[in-house]
Amino acid sequence: MSITFYQYPKCGTCQKAKKWLDSHDVELESVHIVENPPSKEEIKKLVEKSGLDIKKFFNTSGMKYRELGLKDKVKTASEDELLNLLASDGMLLKRPITTDGNKVTVGFNEGAYNETWSK
Q1: How far is CA 51 from the centre of its chain?
Q2: Quick one: angle between helices 12-23 and 110-117, nearest 10?
Q3: What is the C-alpha to C-alpha distance for residues 61 and 34, in angstroms, rounded to an integer?
Q4: Mean pLDDT of the chain, nearest integer
């Protein structure tokens, strides 16, 4: 199983997720979410495959989210506007985003990882 792991290496949650994946021998391609953020099209596919609301892809606790005052904007913005925002800055994306092209997890939850990524 080949997995793409969008992460910010200094993020504690990303480090926990990577440690979990490594300990379960999951092969992954690590992508620095700030240096190489997913494109608008990639984010759209990730949202669709995840089955999650697009708002779940925002890093709501991040400084960038607060600086841009997105709390209220996100509530009324169209999907296209939200995709443009997410694609504009990797720091706006909740991380890590883990995908094998079919399944997608956002953030790190050990139960969800056991269910989704255990071999």
Answers
A1: 13
A2: 40
A3: 16
A4: 95
* Residue keyed to tokens 């979410």: 33
Half-sphere exposure of 24 (CA within 13 A, CB side): 18
Cβ–Cβ < 8 Å for 83, 53: no
Q: ω into residue 96 within 30 of 0, thus cis?
A: yes
What does the pLDDT look like over 64-96, one tens digit per residue? 999 999 999 999 999 999 999 999 999 999 999
Q: What is d(CA 96, CA 6) in angstroms, rounded to the nearest whole number?
A: 5
Q: Which DSSP helix (H) or strand (E) runs through 29?
A: strand 28-32
Look at the pTM and tell me if it is higher than 0.90: yes
93 strand-pairing partners: 58
pLDDT band, very low/low/confident/very high, at 63 (cuts 50, 70, 90): very high
Whose tokens are 């992954």? That residue is 28
Instruction: Please tell me the distance from the alpha carbon of residue 32 to that of residue 119, in angstroms, as a whole number.
Output: 25
